Amino acid sequence: MPVNPYDYFTHQVTSPAWHWEIVWYFFFAGIAAGTYITSTIAQLAGSKNDLQGVIRGYLIGFPVILICGILLVTDLDSPTRFLHMLWYPRENIPMFKAHSPMSVGGWVVGLFGAFSFIGFLYALVKMEKIKTPWLVKLTSFFHESAFSKLFLIIGMLCGFYLGTYTGVLANTSQLPGWTASPLLPVLFLASGMSAGMALMLLVTPKKSELNEYKHKLERADKYMVILELVALALFLITLGQWAGKVTTGFYGFLLWVGVVLIGLLLPLLLKWKPNLLGHRTTLVSSLLILVGGYVLRYVVIMGPQSGYFGF
């Protein structure tokens, strides 16, 4: 009787058994990265009129990364297990392992949290929700001074790392369905960027002075959806013999219907033909992108585990 290579590998290695918490963690991490990256690019390269839209993006990143922390601690069952990735309790010193994606990722997530927190405060200051003088000066220093460009670029790089980190984490596991394609980080980054832009479109107020900003954001999201489609196609091709775990059966149905059709092709159609649904086009297309972004991570994370590790 021929041996299924997937059976052999999954019974010979020890891989993480990831559940719903990790799926949501990967989804929200992508959104946090996507909104922050988009906001920093818009602040660095956009017009002054774009700022009212940009600050809405800054409002999203920090609360979402907090949700990621809660989900990660929930999955680890104990907050101390997360802290042990950052701190060596026996020596009472910080712990950083450059060769460990978990260690590097933990520190980058923390650093990104700091950048996104300052962006969050900056947005509240610009919306006049915070008027405390020292906070106004602090946020202005980081976002409006001569130093701000360097600050925003470093924060943006942290966002790019966060956007790819979830894919890198899966790549460095021992489960063939996650390690076969090196393009998983690229796919997750493109998906996170697209979902982040979609959420920013949803929270941007309907003001005439923001019409140009929304138009630019819609156009950027359209091209990001196309990039995600290309990345997904290449990801599936490079999966090789392991592709069946995500392209057939229940997970295949979710992939082709939930991700490709609902999450990518229909939003792309609505962006090319915005008159199809009138004023509801942005709302519907953005919601579909967000649904597709979650389903993508569910399929990629749960599909390769199906039949193994208790799934």
UniProtKB/TrEMBL annotation:
Compartments, as annotated in UniProt: Cell membrane
A Pfam family per the record: NrfD
Chief localisation class: membrane
Membrane topology: Multi-pass membrane protein
Keywords, sorted A to Z: Cell membrane, Membrane, Transmembrane, Transmembrane helix
This protein's record includes keyword Isomerase: no
TM regions (residue ranges): 22-42, 54-73, 104-125, 146-163, 183-203, 223-244, 250-270, 282-301
GO CC entries: plasma membrane
Family: Belongs to the NrfD family.
Name of the protein this chain belongs to: Polysulfide reductase
